[in-house]
Amino acid sequence: MRKYVVIYQSVLMENLQYTANIAMGFISYLILIFVFIHLWEYMYAAPGDLIAGYTKAQMIWYVMITEMIWFGARSSTIREQVSADIRGGNIAYLVNKPYRYPLYILAKYTGEWNIQLPMYAGLTAVIGITMVGEIPDFHWITLVAAVPCIVLGMTIHAVFKLCIGMLSFWIEDANPFQWLYDKLILVVGTIFPVEIFPAALQPVLKLTPIYTVCYGPAKLIVDFSAGKYLEILLAQMLYLAFGSVILFWIYEKGGRKLYVNGG
Amino acid sequence: MKVIEAEKLCKNFQVKHKEKGMRGSIKSIFHPLTEEICAVDRVSFGVEEGEILAFIGPNGAGKSTTIKMLTGILYPDSGHVEVLGIDPVRRRRQLAYQIGTVFGQKEQLWTHLTPYDNFRFFGAIYDLDNDASEARIAELTEIFALGEFINTPVRNLSLGQRIRCEIVASLIHRPKVLFLDEPTIGLDPVVKENIRILIKQMNKELHTTIFLTSHDIGDIEKLCKRIVIVNAGQIVLDDSMEHLKYHYLNKKIVEIKLQEEASLPPIEGITVLKKKGGNIKFEVDTAVIKINDVLRSIDAERIEDINISNISLENIIMEIYKTEGRENGL
Fold first, then answer.
1. How many structural domains does chain B have?
2. ipTM value
3. Of A230, B37, B74, B225, which sees the most CB atoms within 10 A?
4. CB B8 within 8 A of CB B43
5. Does the CB of A14 have a partner CB in chain B at under 8 Å?
């Protein structure tokens, strides 16, 4: 385990030099949030209205938190590096070290989002409080309770992205699949809470990573309940266990198909 | 004691083929064509503990594929391989603790970190505790003279400095076998020489077995006592350097400068390589004709200058590549 902590620390050290680059991503985030604040302002005719059980403030905070997760989880390591390593043969120079490649990538990714996400969280808090006001009935304890859910959500996201990236062992380009997954999370998962979709569709959405990656943590922060908390934690643990089994299965199978360009 | 044993090692690759143009691209969707390429074909050899072995061959000969099978990166299609008694296929991670690898064309160091941070990182990867890591870094820093730049980010180092750091990173866990794949590629002659001295020193002092592939004849000549040449996936020569040179020393290169333009009389055993005015360069096969007899056939009065040298190792190896390639129908 210590070696993965060291990988994580090394990435953290590396990325601390690039906080200005991360801050550049704030521009896209701000534009998106600005659009959604105005969209929901328009949708809620009166301040006391509820849409799918959410007040206006809860809805805007929900979108801001899911977008924060989305932007905080952005990583070229899980999006491009795995595919590039496999297709370019660089993986050959990584797998002959005494660590497991998927865990190596996960440790790197954790080092990345551990800097990005707090930066986006800080921005979200400032924008939210100044433009929307405090989250209704918010208690600091819910934020503490939501942290494990955020960590699990970010890890589940990475596990699924890694699974897709490792398809490169068999196919030329896994990027179209990455694109589909990203769009599923971004368009369906971050913009609207699950409750806003038709009742027939909601169980389906709960089976997608949307429920565990974005919806769960955001829902707990804006509308915490102990029952929901346990439900989401359980779903995340099951999802992570399932995803990890798939990931290592793909990795073991794919490793045998490894072809290294130029020898 | 043998630390590396390979027996009838084979590796084939499926390579895609596509006809040219758009039509070929569309056709390849419905009828993809693949060809099986034999990269390594029944390769067998062994390496003794403490040996420095040159494993060379032309591009595409199967050298790197063999190294990758020895280090557990690629799975052999058939055959048996053991490194330090460990099967690299089944116990790759266990083997990783015992071996080091340097691929001259690939960086393993993290470029934004300093060499020191990198070495600490590799120490942790190989489960060294902090004290053991520190002691090892200090030892290697002295041997490889890294003191001046150990705290400079790797991205700011010269290529020579970086390669030294790459080698140190591979040695941090005291590997018993070190695989060096073109470690001096792109380096200037002075740095190359320094790297060779360090490799030799490391072999002598730490008794590390070294498995070297390089296209640089200087690396091979100055470091290795044994040479294995592969061509088209097969071993075409496995011999000691001494024996190899002795075997080919019956050929001498003679360069003479004559007072005026002249030509050599046609003599068996002499092959003219180059002729310009009074300058003639020719190869003498001393198994056919003695050097003395060749010189006697030229009027000594007319000779302004003469140089007799052994055929270079580079030419010997090139000849082996060509001859063995032809003999094997390559």
1. 2
2. 0.76
3. B74
4. yes
5. yes
